[in-house]
Amino acid sequence: MSHAAAAANDRTASPAAGPSTRKPPRRTAERILDHTLELFNRYGEPNVSTTLISAELSISPGNLYYHYPAKEALVNALVERYERALQEALTAAGPADDAEGAWLLVPRLFRLCWDYRFLFRDLNDLLTRNRQLETRCQVALTQQTAAVRQRVVRLCAVDGTALNDEEADALATSIVVLLNYWLSFEYVRDPRRALEPENAEAAMRRGARQVQALIWPYLSAELRQRMRPTLSEDALKRGNVAVRG
Amino acid sequence: MSHAAAAANDRTASPAAGPSTRKPPRRTAERILDHTLELFNRYGEPNVSTTLISAELSISPGNLYYHYPAKEALVNALVERYERALQEALTAAGPADDAEGAWLLVPRLFRLCWDYRFLFRDLNDLLTRNRQLETRCQVALTQQTAAVRQRVVRLCAVDGTALNDEEADALATSIVVLLNYWLSFEYVRDPRRALEPENAEAAMRRGARQVQALIWPYLSAELRQRMRPTLSEDALKRGNVAVRG
Predict the structure, then answer these.
(1) Structural domain containing residue B219
(2) Is residue A46 part of a domain?
(3) Whose CA is closest to B27, among B57, B4, B61?
(4) Which of A90, A225, B45, B79 is buried most deeply by CB count within 10 Å?
């Protein structure tokens, strides 16, 4: 099917389909992305073909091709979504000088890793095949590291031992490694269960706790104690973790 | 080619080949593994076919099939090698009560991750396709965690702040995550250079330093100072790191 034919197909519902399937191109593009993300997350990006995607969506391969001329275009569009969601998470976590609000960032970033887990699952493989991802991943890591660094520095300055530059760099880097690889680690520890949707909250909670533990030695006994029991399921579901008990 | 024919082929050098190619089956099997490991590490396991392996080795597909009837058999044999190397690394690092010798373990485990980097590169994908790996990876992680835990507990008890159980568990887990994912993280930060063989030493050195940084807050200022400048290129090449400056 030509681009033009696919476009026409997209704008005009086939006679057999009801009016509810008449969707403007923009919405179709978003719907394709939603389903693709789900399929990538469930089966892994290398195992999902564009044929499978169009079959799952009940659209013609030509229609899919009109919106995304290759699987790489789908990956890139999903990475753009991820980048926007990362910005939102960084903004939503509040300013860096809100010491206790700093904790909001950790579950938000874990949630992001969960929502886009296909990216982290086979990142090395994706990077090998898609050079556009290279710079974008570097930017995302740099942003995460900077945001985490600001917050741990602030948290420790307000409550515990002030971090020197070397400690702050090392701590932020270790936290970013934990954030981005924790779910993979959970998967290796328990491939049949850890990343089933019903267990994801628990996996993220363990990850958030693991991040907390990195900061323990720098915090006052009092704040440490207060942080302990607060990683409730509810807080994680809301995408935030209260610091006060 | 039948198994028997392949076996015969393996034992009898073809008339064109010189006497140096006359290798007993055991050695051929090992040679196949050496080359396969190299190819897997260079291109990623999913991108290496048995056809490529036999072509690279200049052996017939039947001969390869005689030794390893599927790619999975090659992966499993390499995992066995990895497991043996892990045991050797754990043994070579000395007993857990040798506090300063504890550091020997970190560069040895990084070296292992480097030598078998194909495993860690696409571990999630491998686990999905090869259920035999599941238990074996869990055992390897458990062994690593136990060995690391014993050593950090000892190191901190001798020199710094004694760790409680919760701290020791968290610290050992974070170190194991860093050990197993650091090279992937390096790759994401710099896909074109980080894991080129000439840069691998530096990548492992940064990883070992990152692990050290996790333990810093628990150590006395004096030991911390002594540990600092000792992660020399030489030490990493020898697979060990001196604690004394």
Answers:
(1) 78-237
(2) yes
(3) B57
(4) B45
